[in-house]
Structures are given as structure tokens and as C-alpha cells.
Amino acid sequence: MNQSRTLTIANVQITLTQDSTSGSHATTIWPAGLLLSHYISSIYSSRAKHRSLPSLDQKSVVDLGSGTGICAIVASRVLGASWTFATDLSEHAKGILAANIAANRVAGDLPPARDVQQLSSSGTLDADVVVTSETPKTPRSSNPTRPAPPILASVPLDWLSPTLPPTLLPHLPFSLILGSDTLFSLALLPAFFRTLTALSGPRTIALLATESRDPAVIEEAWKEAARCGWFVKKLTWDKIRKTVGKLDEQWWEEVEGAQVFELKRKRG
């Protein structure tokens, strides 16, 4: 049964639909997603203190295993990324994720509609998403004196696929990669980190949040990350609380147990 939850992050109101009875983890707002969305909002609001963060003006962000889309929506609406892609398996990308993305777009959030039928039939994107693989690297605006609003889209992405969706290719490498609750299966870790690496470049920063469910999976995840050329830094709980700032204790209790990790590509 679908339920609606409204969140306020950096004075931006976000309304999300979730279904905790669907049997799928992808249709629920989990503590890791809540924590990561508030964390990225906080660090970008004080970016002068976080000089290693990439500017997102005219840059692209991809959210892996986006689920309800909370982190992708924050990246677009709060961080101001020029292009944000919320990715998940096809059945999720075309369900609650697509609905939440559509519900949280602002007016003029997409370029002019074209080739909608072609996109729909190819399965590359949902029919309501009109970003194509030929989308230019400059957002289009009907008023050339006013910056175009950010583009926000849901895109089916299977980590086990040997190729990336054509829609993502013009945006490689992504400046910022997000992921919450993506490290849950030993069997999927190699595919996840292959996908992460394929989407990244030397200056890409990845921020991953996860709950401490199975320490063995997390331990193996960082071994796989190292094999794929990533340096992993765990953010301390004290640093996260100091960065996010004043939120009520009930909120902190809800996200207790979630962790945030910063990943950067190793040089050389």
C-alpha cells in the first residue's frame, strides 16, 4: 500500500511515495537514504569548508540504486546539479521511482519533448522522460538570459549489464556518484563496483551510505573497492552530526546505525 511522506531538506519540500509492503527494499525510504540526503545538502550548503567537493554547475550526478529517489531529488532540487539521473532496475525505475521523480520536478525541469515514442518503445527511459542520448551538454532554456533549470530523470540501470544505458554516456565521467543501501549482497559487489568505476573519472567523488546489517559484506565491499582502484574513507558519526547540524533527536534516532563513506579514485 502506497504511503506519502513529506520531508523538508534545506528549506526545500520533497514529497515521496513509498510502499513498505511491496516486498522490495527499493520502494521504502531507509535511514541510509535519509542520512545521505541531509549530509549532501549540508556539505554543499557550506562548500567553502569542503573544497574537495566538485562544483555541480554544468555537471552531472548519478544516483545508484535510487529506490524512492530521495538522494537524486536532493541533488537536483537542493544541490543544483545541472543533470541528475536516478537509476535502478527497470521495474523500479518505471514504478515508484519514476512517480517520485515526476512529482518533485519543478516547472520547466525538462528540455522540450521529442522522440517520446522512440524512448518509450526502446525502454531506455520512461515515456515521461525526454532526455535522450543526444541531449546536449548545455541545458536548453526558452529564455537565453536565464539559466535553465536542472534536468532530473529516472533511468533503468542493471549493474549486471555489460553496457551502460545510452542516456548516461554523454555525461561521462560523472562528477558526483551517490548510493544508499547499495552494499547488501556479496554476489553483487563486483558488478556494483564495475558500474561505479565505469561511471567515474579521476576526479569523481562517490558518497555511499549504508546500514550496518552484515559486517562481512561491508568488509568485502571495501576489498572490492580497492581492487577497482578506489580509496575509501569512513566519515565519523561526530563529523556527520556536526556537518548536518541541528535536527531533532527523533530524527537522529531514525538514522542511527547508518554510515557514510567517501570514495575517491586512486591516482596512478
TrEMBL record:
InterPro entries: Methyltransf_16, SAM-dependent_MTases_sf. Pfam families: Methyltransf_16. This is S-adenosyl-L-methionine-dependent methyltransferase. It comes from the Eukaryota.
